[in-house]
Amino acid sequence: MSTTIQKIYPVLNMHCAGCANNVERTVKKLPGVTDASVNFASNQLNVSFEGNHITPGEIRAAVLAAGYDLIIEETRKAERQEEAQHLRYQRLKHKVTGAWILVVPLLFFAMVLRQMPYTEWIQMMLAIPMLAFFGNDFFVGAWKQLKLGRSNMDTLVALSTSIAFLFSLFNTLFPEYWRSHGLETHVYYEASGVIIAFVLTGKLMEERAKGNTSAAIRRLMGLQPKTARVRRTNGQEEEMPIEELQVGNLIIVHPGEQLPVDGQVAEGESYVDESMISGEPIPVGKVKGDKVLAGTVNQRGSFVVSATQVGSETVLARIIRLVQEAQGSKAPVQRIVDRVTEFFVPTVLGIAILTFVLWLAIGGTERLSYGVLSAVSVLVIACPCALGLATPTALMVGMGKAADLHILIKDALALEQMRKVNVIVFDKTGTLTEGTPAVKGWLWAQPQEAHHKEVLLAAELKSEHPLANAIVEALRQGEPIQPATLDRFESLTGKGVKVGFQGTTYWVGSHKLLNDFNVPIDEQLSTMLKEYATEGNSIIYFGQANELLAAIAVSDPIKATSPDAIKQLKAQGTEVYMLTGDSERTAKAVATSLGIDQYVADALPDDKAEYIRELQLQGKRVAMVGDGINDSQALALADVSVAMGKGTDIAMDVAMVTLMTSDLLLLPKAFQLSRQTVRLIHQNLFWAFIYNVIGIPIAAGVLFPFDGLLLSPMLASAAMAFSSVSVVLNSLSLGRRRI
Predict the structure, then answer these.
(1) Whether 639 is catalytic
(2) Is the dihedral of CA 100, 106, 109, 112 positive or negative?
(3) 126 and 65 in one domain?
(4) What is the Cα–Cα distance from 328 to 520, expressed in whole angstroms?
(5) Boundaries of domain holding 278
(6) Assessment of whether the complete model's pTM goes beyond 0.85
(7) Is residue 672 part of a domain?
(8) DSSP letter for each residue of 465-508
(9) In the chain, which end has fewer C-beta atoms inside a 10 angstrom radius, N or C?
(10) H/E/C letters for each residue in 588-618?
């Protein structure tokens, strides 16, 4: 049976959206690859492949053959990518400096000393190193793509500069050809040189701006220490790279140090700053047996941690991986853009040829130079990069900002779906409430017998209901009791549990279970229970056969941020609902205190899922907010599923969106961020399309018959460089906006 492996590999040597498409198409065609997606903004390949059919080495070999490269080594992958990007940036910077050193005198001779003898020969000598040394990457890239029958940005730059240079070279070597036809000769060496200088400058600015879009990932990675201090069995300490750590290692952590692993405190005690994971600013006290997480910072005393998760299995590593995958994912609109960029370069080549032909057909040979210049301008001004960067850069900044706010968004589809949500449905326990319930009161309907509490303790220890732990804690606070040895145990979903003890059936659960056993409640007890329920307490019933033994009032306080979060969501125009398994009276009390008008009580898991379906049938876009486990049916059915994360138990694999802290105020921020990011994507795409729609006809000379305006290749190359950089800078502006 084949095993599908999903990996993220950094891609090297890409410098346009066409490059990303070429890598993606190359990898997708490989046998054994089930899916592949390349993000030009992050320079990453997200690939799923069958491990027994193809290896990472074979994928890399195919990418190398296409003219690019992959980093497939798992150790220091991020550092290797950063080093490669830094080297590329430095190399670009040197090329830009050298290019402008040659371009300035080239422009001087072309514009100021145009009539000087042999000026065209001097310009040619300056243009040759421009193309050979500073523009060589464009020609090498174009040649590699030509061998594969493909094209990209390199093709446009290589063609435009070589056409301008070769046309000028012909005019320099054979000027009498034009003079014999009564035409004046012109050279355009400065055009080929300036095109390369401007394109390189644009790429340099683009690389610098793109580096800022991945700032969130770098901050998260900065939380990972590079080494750990390990205690060996002989008591000796050894400094070890975190890649070599294993489960069970004893790690010594001193004050001020970041934890390298997830684990349990084995010795010592301290306070740990967990704000980078949980968002809670107050350091948490840790004693022997407590859990600690990688990336958190030890504040005071030294302690020893027994590693339970290392490397890629830690919570921090999973968060980094989730953000990387989300940033690398494609929004539905990006699929359309990919198709456009795939045909973009061939279309531009066709337009350039048509431009040249039309100039000759309409103006004759005396307009030949205009035709050449216009064709070159069309090749230069066309910019697939702006289109290719429009979506991924906005997504990267949006996802990164969400991660900074402790909001994890699973993929681009989730981000796009969130802005369409007009109904939010909340689970109550652990979502709107603290999720740390406590017993507020006991009401015994029958005289207690010694084994009653023992049976109740045994039943609740096996129960998975969030309120069960509160009863366990309350039972253990008094005189010590041991759980009874049960004959049988049965979980009744959404109702409670049923157990057997010494041939007698006992049950613990909600009033639904009470009704199932047809248990009557006397008037005095009923009055007291109504008072508890009106105050928002949940009532748990404990009985034997069809006889009630006790009723337990459990209080789960409402989170301090819940009322404000509900108010903000309503202000955004969103309808708010609450679903709970509690009784009508309890549900009403909680809903009223939160300002929620629509709520459903007595809801079983199936009821919650059915309610979500009913809302969707009414044409509503529904987000479900729950704990990711008890509400799994409803979460799976909702248009957007949101899980409340609490450190290690965040439901990152279940929900589209995870709020890593218990602060519900993150929810309106998440929806607002979604709207801002998608609005930014639409802005970027609009301007990228408009730029090409307006720029290409002007470059072709469509305005020349009206006002004699002809766009020079120099201005075209400057406009092309500006378009890509402006898209990236517009995306980066999202990071500075308040939410």
Answers:
(1) no
(2) negative
(3) no
(4) 59
(5) 225-317
(6) no
(7) no
(8) -TTHHHHHHHHHHSS-------SEEEEETTTEEEEEETTEEEEE
(9) N
(10) HHHHHHHCCCEEECCCCHHHHHHHHHHHHHC
